[in-house]
Amino acid sequence: MIFSTRQLSLFACTSLLFCHATTHAKPMEVHARLAPQARAENKVALTLDACSGRFDEDLLAFLIRKRIPATIFVTKKWLDKNPRGVTVIKSNLDLFAVEDHGEKHIPAIIGSGRTVYGLAGEPDIAHLQREVTEGAKAITSTIGIAPQWYRGASAKYDAEAITEINRLGYKIAGFSFNADHGATLRKKAIVDKFKRLQPGDVIIAHMNKPQSDSAQGLSSGLNDALKQGFVFVRLDQVEMQKMPDQKTKRDKS
Prior knowledge:
Blueprint: H1 5-23, E1 28-29, E2 32-34, E3 43-50, H2 57-66, E4 70-74, H3 76-81, H4 83-90, E5 96-100, E6 115-116, E7 119-120, H5 125-143, E8 149-150, E9 156-157, H6 159-167, E10 171-172, E11 177-178, H7 187-194, E12 202-206, H8 214-227, E13 231-233, E14 240-242, H9 249-252
Parallel strand pairs: 3-4, 3-12, 3-13, 4-5, 8-10, 11-12
Antiparallel strand pairs: 1-9, 2-14, 6-7
């Protein structure tokens, strides 16, 4: 069968659109909880993202005062801009584990022009590799400990990025409890969310926006959790398990 030039052009365009649709699936969040423990304990894990921006000293001061462990995901950008925050973290490595949030806070999605929450993703695998490895190098040189976990900007990924991050030797840090929605919630909303905290939850929140309500809301919510008998752990102290359902009611709330 012989096709005209116009038919071939239409076929090529249709093929490209099909490939784009199939290779660029909607980015997903990775939801995970603590694996069941041998002993019945109300363990939960607090993870804090330090994307760029400033250092929420009030929040870390509260965690230190209450002796609440946390796993902190930092970018190279944040490390470079916040020497005071670095000093506080390094002085409390018995409480805080420091993990990789990337070099420049670029989402782990591959493809030119793709964005998540207004953040541009990576044009190709090579750029993703740099984002992950340069972020890790900055932590190793600044904190003195090599990271084992990775959380991408926006905490959304595509399948290709997840495969590459794992190939580089890093575990994806999922979560089950979104406490402050990118440091956008007001104090009361954060406190109300903590009323739904459950044993095994992995909390995601932020410590890079002191102008937000995150510090006050998290301090109040975490204090209530302590009173209820919750025990806080770092990710390096427990095993994790991926949740089969990528969407939960509590994440939408």
